[in-house]
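Please decode residue identities from the backbone states below.
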């Protein structure tokens, strides 16, 4: 078993143990936001952490009615500017906590008096120390270069922050079911690995999703790039139709993230359009009747936590594909575990 695969399988038990600590760390942050009547959020991250922020944006805007903008750290570190963050909640995520540019955004926000939250897997890291409310992801050492359990932990920590900001008990309860949902996906590893074997020769693909699930599309594309050396491109379903659809042609490969819920009509419409041009589709879905020839049918869960189900399936797929292609998913070429950008 590769380290990447082992770390994927460690995820549910680690999250189950960490959930109470997440709540304890985040309740004061949510209280500070309510106490100051802050009405906007800025998120800072790089790579997989930035992808996790997409889920946070959709969840927070949907449940807490708070707009979420993405920081451009280069504005602070490269151009020396100081955007006014004083009346914002500034949330940062960095698995290693070593992202210097993300830490710089937090430090600026803190000097200006913003409420600052940082999610890292190292409570002594620069990013954690730059925030008022650090959250230790508690995932233990992650050895594989590709982030797996720490990315999933970021999703859960950010989801719990959204629920607390919204004072949404139903969402809090749903998020507590994530470890059990992940375990159900892990039991489907053989079906996922069969699809990896079938597609072992893929050179490029498009990954499509919408809404809460868009974060996973970007993360899966990243995993396919770094672990499998596949030219993968992620799009939201609406954006893909605005121009990139011109690239859809016979035998082009599409990976569609299509769980039940509000995004399903768009998924069905896209299936019809792709079928019309003769494209190939692999769907990750909870609907066994989805009209595609190749699909992995995943457990059906609340729409807000479907991204966790899709994330674990995506990680297993990327890990298996890397292995069957003869790559080492634990040590992708040209990459290191910690990437520091300024």
């Amino acid at each position: 078993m590769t380290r990447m695969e082992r770390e994927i399988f460690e995820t549910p038990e680690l999250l189950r143990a960490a959930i109470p600590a997440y709540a304890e760390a985040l309740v004061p942050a949510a209280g500070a936001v309510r106490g100051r009547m802050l009405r906007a959020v800025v998120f800072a991250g790089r790579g997989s952490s930035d992808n996790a922020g997409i889920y946070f944006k959709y969840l927070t805007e949907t449940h807490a009615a708070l707009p979420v903008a993405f920081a451009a750290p280069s504005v602070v570190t490269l151009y020396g500017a100081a955007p006014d963050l004083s009346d914002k909640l500034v949330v940062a995520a960095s698995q290693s906590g070593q992202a210097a540019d993300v830490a710089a955004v937090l430090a600026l926000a803190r000097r200006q008096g913003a409420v600052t939250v940082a999610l890292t897997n190292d409570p002594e890291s620069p990013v954690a120390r730059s925030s008022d409310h650090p959250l230790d992801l508690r995932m233990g050492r992650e050895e594989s270069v590709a982030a797996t359990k720490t990315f999933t932990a970021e999703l859960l920590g950010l989801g719990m922050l959204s629920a607390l900001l919204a004072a949404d008990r139903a969402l809090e309860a749903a998020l507590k079911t994530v470890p059990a949902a992940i375990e159900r996906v892990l039991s489907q590893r053989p079906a996922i690995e069969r699809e990896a074997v079938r597609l072992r020769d893929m050179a490029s693909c498009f990954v499509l999703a919408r809404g809460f699930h868009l974060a996973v599309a970007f993360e899966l594309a990243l995993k396919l790039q770094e672990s499998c050396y596949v030219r993968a491109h992620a799009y939201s379903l609406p954006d893909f139709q605005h121009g990139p659809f011109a690239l859809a042609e016979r035998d082009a490969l599409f990976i569609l993230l299509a769980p039940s819920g509000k995004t399903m009509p768009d998924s069905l419409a896209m299936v019809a359009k792709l079928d019309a041009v003769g494209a190939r589709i692999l769907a990750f879905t909870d609907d066994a009747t989805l009209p595609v020839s190749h699909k992995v049918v995943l457990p059906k869960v609340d729409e807000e936590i479907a991204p966790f189900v899709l994330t674990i399936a995506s990680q297993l797929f990327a890990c298996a594909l890397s292995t069957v292609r003869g790559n080492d998913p634990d040590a992708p070429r040209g990459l290191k575990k910690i990437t520091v950008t300024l």
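Observation: The two ends are 35 Å apart (CA to CA).
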